[in-house]
Design a protein that fits this description.
With about 400 residues, the chain is α/β, with parallel strands linked by helices. The protein has 15 helices and twelve strands. Strands 1-7-6-5-4-2-3 form a seven-stranded mixed beta sheet, sandwiched between helices. Helix 8 links the parallel strand 5 (about 190-195) and strand 6. Homotetramer. Pfam families: Cys_Met_Meta_PP.
């Protein structure tokens, strides 16, 4: 979160009340004296001050302006303002990765003696961050089933400061009731943090549902073409100021070039998310009919236990689905290895469809017991549906399923 370049008041803002498509293209633009149409990339580490007094005032925060690109950069600022506008947040902070966004939030807002409730249905590296590293700094962490609202309620303590969920979850697409979780924190010191990676603000806006902070891996759909790594934290100005202070001190900073790439990705975000969602639903329905498939996990399916809630919280169901083949790891690997169009990679949110075996990759560092608790079976395959023609993707998956038998 970096200082604004103008003193425009909300009443002067031509984007006040603008639709998401317009915000994705226009929010955060502040042109330089050169009058550029596309956002510039400010590849500078530092800035020249008008005087010693100006330098002192900027460093102290008494005067707005750029100080050092570790925490103030015009290109990163444009990205921050745009993602904040899309999420409906007061401010945002760009970070070096999605995990850096989670780490920065925790280090900025937690202290020794605090307590965190985290869904056990999260990305494997998120689990490791909470279970292996935050606890070293005296933060107590309990993991709760995403859908067990009574366990979230019972797990709250006076020391609880964060409730952390991702919804839909990775990779089983389970859907948390954001409003209900937000209600649990009312009247307490706890903040509800929602990882919105799978939906993005194009499909879901957690802050409007009562969440306090939204986390993004910009690496995924915000970019949309698998080019750069980055993250974002969105929320109230006071909380984001704390995250900026951590960023200024510790430096998990988004680079200007990556911020520029993410700005370009945000311009087409809604169009892409709708296309991903259409194809994913088509493939999920098709997979349900295949004899080699044991079960399909996708909130867009009426049979999914979170379907009704997802219909209320989301405008569409996203591009990620998972399915279990009949058998175990050997059958899942055969299916994956037989595909020829999909990329075998753990990333998602790309124009190129990806396929992966979660139990040995994204969740491979979890203990066997943790994987069982999280529902990560050896037969599970995750597909992040890209923007290729859906018939070609079905044909590719059919090659994989044929290899299972």
């Amino acid at each position: 979160m970096t200082p604004p370049d103008t003193d425009m008041t909300p009443n002067d803002d031509p984007l006040a009340g603008a639709h998401l498509d317009t915000l994705g293209i226009r929010a955060g633009i502040t042109r330089t004296a050169e009058g550029e149409h596309s956002e510039p990339i400010f590849t500078t580490s530092s800035y020249v001050f008008d005087s010693a007094a100006d330098a002192a005032a900027r460093f102290s925060g008494d005067s707005p302006g750029n100080v050092y690109s570790r925490y103030t950069n015009p290109t990163v600022r444009s990205f921050e303002q745009r993602i904040a506008a899309l999420e409906g947040g007061e401010a945002a902070v760009g970070t070096a990765s999605g995990m850096a966004a989670i780490l920065s939030t925790c280090m900025a807002l937690l202290k020794s003696g605090d307590h965190v409730l985290c869904s056990r249905d999260v990305f494997g590296t998120t689990t490791n961050l909470f279970a292996r590293y935050l606890v070293k700094f005296g933060v107590a962490v309990d993991f709760v089933p995403l859908l067990a609202l009574d366990q979230w309620r019972d797990g709250l303590r006076q020391e609880t400061k964060l409730l952390f969920v991702e919804t839909p979850s990775n990779p089983l697409c389970e859907v948390a009731d954001i409003r209900a979780l937000a209600e649990l924190t009312r009247g307490t010191d706890a903040l509800l943090v929602v990882d919105n990676c799978f939906c993005t603000p194009a499909l879901q806006r957690p802050l409007e549902l009562g969440a306090d902070i939204v986390i993004h891996s910009a690496t995924k759909y915000l970019d949309g073409q698998g080019r750069c790594v980055g993250g974002a934290v969105v929320g109230g100005a006071a909380h984001m100021a704390e995250v900026v202070t951590f960023l200024r001190t510790c430096g998990p900073t988004m680079s200007p070039f990556n911020a520029w790439v993410f700005l370009k990705g945000l311009e087409t975000l809604r169009l892409r998310m709708e296309a991903h969602s259409r194809s994913a639903l088509d493939i999920a329905l098709w997979l349900q009919q295949q004899p080699q498939v044991e079960r399909v996990f996708y909130a867009g399916l009426p049979s999914h236990p979170g379907h009704a809630l997802a219909t209320q919280q989301q405008s569409a169901f996203g591009g990620v689905l998972s399915f279990q083949v009949k058998g175990g790891r050997e059958e899942a690997w055969r299916c994956i290895d037989a595909t020829r169009i999909m990329s075998l990679t753990a990333n998602l949110g790309d124009a190129k469809s990806t396929i992966v075996h979660p139990a040995t990759t994204t969740h491979g560092r979890l203990t066997p017991e943790q994987r069982v608790e999280a529902g990560i079976a050896d037969s599970l395959i995750r597909v992040a549906v890209g923007l290729e023609h859906v018939d070609d993707l079905k044909a590719d998956l059919q090659r994989g399923l044929d290899a299972v038998v």
